[in-house]
Amino acid sequence: MKAVMTPHTNAVYGKPKGWDDSKGMKCTELPVCVAQGIIFSWWKPTFKERIKLAFGVKIRLAIVGGVHPPVAVDATNK
Question: What pLDDT, on a 0 to 100 scale, did the predictor assign at position 26?
């Protein structure tokens, strides 16, 4: 999936300091909306991913770091 800009985007996060893409996970810029202590990002699945989702493939969320923050995943155009 690709993170996408929306009319709500008010910040873009870059790679964390010291991040090394060669160690297995590429880190790209993340457009976000920061509002009331919550960080929102929007993701658009590729055509291939949309086909997989239509056939019931699960969505996986990866959190990098030692602590798993509270998260929510949904489908919305808002």
Answer: 86
